[in-house]
Amino acid sequence: MQHTETPGTEAAAPAPRLRWWTELPLILLVYACYSAGRLLARGDVSGAVDNGLTILRFEKGLYLNFEHPLNRLFTREAWIGIPADFWYASLHYLVTPAVLVWLFRSRAARYRAARTWLMTSTLIGLIGFTLLPTCPPRLLDASHGFVDTMAQYSSYGWWGGAASAPRGMGDMTNQYAAMPSLHVGWALWCGAMLWRFGGSRMTKTAAVAYPLITTIVVMGTANHYFLDAVAGAAVMGVGLLLAPVVMRTADRVKAQIVPSAAPVTADSSASASAPVAADSSAAGSSIVSAGCQTSAGERIPRQRESRFEDGAEPGASPKDAGDGAPDRGLPSASAVESLGKAR
User: Fold this and answer.
1) Residue 292 belongs to what H/E stretch?
2) Could you report the per-residue pLDDT of 102-125, keeping only the tens digit for each?
């Protein structure tokens, strides 16, 4: 049964699978731009301190300053403060790439949208660091009641007194890039991926626990205000809304740079099959080759020329001539019999 297609419809080609050797440089490039942007976005220290105090006063007015009691707990209880510092200094850079690799390997169809969401939100966060440099609670004057737990427990880890940077590398990070908190934003992204694509109860639990614990850790270590965490979640929401627009724009740019192959339509497939039909009809016709035509009694062209050298040509027998052809060569059997009786 012949399959027909609606004219003008195109055969949809499957989307090409992304390759790790193109994805890895892209992710590293975006992260390098993000890190460099944080360093270039260093604003005036006095302005960053003013922004931090404004956020703190606003939280106190709404009774949202959860970072104060958490920081006192982390400072007093080393068995809580030390693991929290390890959590803050490590998991941000381990869990997020691990979830990306997991999506790339096991959820390839969803990977591009998830990666675009993460990168778009990260770049939006960079804009926030540039427009609103904010002094974190740990860098405020001690009269405000905050203790830098990472400096207090620095002898237990690889970090120094300057945020989560390794010892001696404190000048290579922007300590006033606190608003929004991408520690919370990235953790929320990881939680959404684990909840959406993780099939076990353990992954569902981790999807809820990881962003929740990260939010508590960033406040307890005095690295972020509660509103920094809220802003991190808001940035991820905006990135989620903008991700489809970014992907469509990227597809249009790619289509202009790399022209795709011409689509196969129903009309083109019909025109392509026309020569084949013509050849098959020609094969069934009586014309075998140019200038050579068979006649009745011949199975191949020039049969008469090859069988009779003197040009004599007997009439075709009924067998060769086909049904209804006259007998012109040999006499019939009844004629022979009547001739014998006459003699």
Assistant:
1) strand 292-293
2) 998 888 888 889 999 999 999 899
The DSSP symbol for 171 reads G
Report how far apart, in Å, the C-alpha atoms of 195 and of each of 171, 191, 211, 235 are: 37, 6, 12, 19
Q: Is the Cα dihedral 206, 212, 213, 214 positive or negative?
A: positive
Give the separation between CA 4 and CA 10, rounded to whole angstroms.
13
User: What pTM did the predictor assign?
Assistant: 0.67
Tokens for 216? 């508590």
Q: Would you state the structure tokens that stand for residue 309, as one six-digit string?
A: 């050298």
Q: Which of 220, 192, 221 is nearest to 110 (CA)?
A: 192
Instruction: With H, G, I as helix, E, B as strand and everything else as coil, classify residue 328.
Output: coil
Q: pLDDT by residue (tens digit) across 36-58?
A: 666 665 567 888 899 999 999 99
CA distance readout (Å), 130 to 224, 225, 276:
17, 18, 66
